[in-house]
Amino acid sequence: MKSVVAFIFLISFNLASAKIFLNCEFAKELGKNEAIERVYIPHWVCLAQGESQLNTSKLVNYPNQSSSYGIFQINSKEQCGKDKKGGFCNIKCSDLLDDDIKDDIKCAKVIFDRSGFNNWKSWQNRCKSTSTIDKNKALPNLVNCQYK
Ligand SMILES: *[C@@H]1O[C@H](CO)[C@@H](O)[C@H](O)[C@H]1NC(C)=O
Ligand SMILES: *[C@@H]1O[C@H](CO)[C@@H](O)[C@H](O)[C@H]1NC(C)=O
To answer: In total, how many domains does the chain have?
Structure first.
């Protein structure tokens, strides 16, 4: 009986820590970080859609032993630490899987300051404008979203 209760507790705990953001909700969370430039918010939403479908608990293990974590798919090779705080974000990777994405946003901004949006393949594939015709083609429409 005890183990059944523990099991149910574990399941509900896992559900509570995973979250799928809606575009506007995510844009608002980005807007709370004053270091994020407002004009880039649609780009951030677009790239996170591509990386994680805005799933905060997405974890992908690659054959090369590295793993990518959370809504921005931050990678353990250099960006975060697998067992303890580390990487150039000085954060523990597993802390990037919960539904509090303030730390994810902070780390994503550190990555952006080092290498720009090009760090993210999904940005290059879906969000980067390559010509004036498809300019901003995949960028989400956030006009009705009141982010600050
Ligand atoms: C979110 O990601 C987790 C971990 O990869 C996965 O188990 C879960 O099914 C995903 N949720 C949705 C709605 O895709
Ligand atoms: C491991 O593979 C992933 C996905 O292909 C890639 O993004 C990452 O840079 C690779 N890491 C290393 C250590 O080569």
So the answer is: 1
